Amino acid sequence: MMKKLFLFISIISMSIMACDSDDAVIQEVTGRIFEATSQAGLDGCGWMVEIDGEVYQPTYLNSQYRQEDLRVFMNVEFLDERANCSVLALAPGLVRIEQIRPAGN
Length: 105
Prior knowledge:
By secondary structure, the chain is an alpha+beta fold.
């Protein structure tokens, strides 16, 4: 009985450790929020975030941050997917915002 319990606990522990290696990589970045409705090729994308000169579509953006040219500090995960709102040859990437706060002036 003890050997089976030990084996069961070992398998569970290895499974948990295996999941840890797939954890998201969260990066601290600064960005600018803007509405893309007036941007050519992005008019169906809604609110976007510019990070280091690249444009991304957030998977979710709280309404309090939907302000034109708002500068923000964020903790984000860059996803391996592209937005489906653009007619550009290379659609913007998707970004998941984990934390966000205004950068101030």
